[in-house]
Specification:
Elements (H helix, E strand, L loop, with lengths): L5 E5 L10 H11 L13 E5 L2 E4 L1 H4 L3 H17 L4 E7 L4 E10 L5 E11 L6 H8 L3 E6 L4 E4 L1 H7 L3 H4 L14 H14 L1 E9 L5 E13 L2 E11 L1 H15 L9 H17 L8 E8 L2 H8 L1 H18 L5 E6 L2 E6 L8 H18 L8 E8 L6 H17 L4
Parallel strand pairs: 1-2
Antiparallel strand pairs: 1-6, 2-3, 4-5, 5-6, 7-8, 7-11, 9-10, 10-11, 12-14, 12-15, 13-14
């Protein structure tokens, strides 16, 4: 069986039933501008204007769920879609077919939407693909050929927090607003156009504002050689991504203090060295390595315990990070040994001023972390390229100078 349904809807109108018969007659008269007589059309049809929906008996005979669904589509087409006209396939529990939308104007120059429905089949039971869509544990989204949302399943609301009526006929780009993924989406649709499918990682903003990582699989729906729409499945992989990021972080950072480890220190040293070599015109190009060793730290562990010692190390590491610039690097290369990579300076490093600032930061961090001790340390400096051109040679020079300071009698 084939059924055609016509609607006219006011752009600002929400949808509900009305008992105002006089207003209904006036609205029906306005509909004649579009050569449409609500009562004379021998098909289910309706007129929506000023927030009121008027329905003839044929439309009113459709299942209530279907009526509500079509009314929401009509309202959301005006509210969310930028298209002038479009075709949309639909599947409800006991109806399936196609909806045709068309924007029109009436004599009062109101922005309206005209749409009709062709019902292809009325099976006794819901199609199996519709059941899978509705009951899948993965978030699923159906969009039309213009990539406007036609339907989402229950898992979509659970994962992302959006109610279906709020997003029908909306382009799903709102899920990615502000996340700088335009290039990736263009590449995805290019791949879909070529092969009919694309899968990849996409960041999505939930209704709450939270950003999560998803694995998105999108396939085109092709009928009679033409793309009719797209089906997208989202899998929340945020936990997986966070675990990977954690592993990556630990590969280049100290597990206790979160400072750079030796591998990251070496990498940044080589980057800085290459940068300076590219700018040899500046004869003053140099940077400094600072080797720091905590004095008698074993006594701290033996006296207060390893947990207290760990908190002391964390406090010292935070003080180091606070004492350097953003472009500098603080690293922990062994238990109580730290190395600073201080990048190119506008003027020679004021050693006294730097360590005065470090001492203040160390004292404050120890106090904030409930470590009532005084950490003493020795240090040595080496400058590139005067003291060496490799990290190994510079660390050797700085280490020797640190031990020379350690041997000096305390003042």
């Amino acid at each position: 069986m084939v059924v055609t349904v016509w609607f006219i809807a006011d752009k600002t109108g929400s949808l509900h039933a009305s008992e105002n018969q006089r207003q209904e007659k006036q609205d029906k008269k306005l509909a004649t501008d579009n050569l449409l007589y609500i009562d004379d059309v021998p098909l289910p049809c309706g007129l929506i204007r000023g927030g009121i929906v008027f329905k003839n008996s044929l439309f009113d005979s459709l299942p209530r769920e279907a009526q509500s669904h079509f009314e929401k589509l009509a309202s959301n087409f005006l509210k969310n879609s930028k298209m002038i006209s479009k075709n949309v396939d639909f599947k409800k529990t006991n109806l399936q077919g196609k909806i045709y939308f068309k924007r029109v104007k009436d004599s009062a120059d109101n922005n309206t939407v005209l749409f009709c429905i062709h019902i292809f089949d009325t099976p006794q039971y819901a199609p199996i693909d519709n059941i899978v869509f509705d009951h899948s544990g993965e978030a699923m989204m159906l969009t039309d050929k213009d990539d406007d949302i036609v339907k989402v399943n229950g898992a979509f609301k659970t994962v992302f927090g959006y109610d279906e009526p709020d997003i029908l006929m909306k382009n799903p780009s709102f899920l990615r607003d502000g996340l700088n993924q335009v290039g990736l989406i263009k590449k995805a649709f290019s791949e879909i156009e070529k092969s009919g499918h694309w899968s990849g990682e996409i960041a999505v903003r939930k209704a709450s504002g939270e950003i999560i990582h998803t694995w998105q699989s999108t396939s085109s729906i092709v009928r009679y050689g033409k793309t009719q729409g797209y089906i997208t499945i989202f899998s929340d992989i945020t936990t997986h991504v966070n675990e990977i990021e954690k592993v990556r972080f630990l590969a280049y950072h100290d597990y206790l203090t979160a400072l750079a480890n030796r591998m990251l220190l070496e990498d940044r040293f080589e980057q800085l060295k290459r940068h300076l070599n590219r700018n040899k015109s500046n004869q003053e190009s140099t940077f400094t390595i600072v080797f720091i060793d905590l004095n008698n730290f074993k006594i701290v562990n033996d006296t207060h315990g390893h947990a207290f010692g760990d908190n002391s190390l964390i406090s010292f590491a935070k003080a180091l990070s606070e004492s350097i610039r953003e472009e500098d690097t603080a690293s922990r290369i062994s238990g109580d040994e730290f190395v600073l990579l201080l990048e190119q300076q506008d003027k020679p490093l004021d050693v006294g001023l730097f360590f005065e600032r470090l001492d203040k930061n160390v004292a404050r961090q120890l106090k904030e972390n409930n470590c009532p001790i005084k950490l003493e340390y020795s240090y040595g400096l080496a400058t590139y390229p005067n003291d060496g051109e490799s990290l190994k040679s510079l660390l050797h020079v700085a280490d020797n100078r640190m031990y020379e300071m350690k041997k000096q009698p305390k003042q």
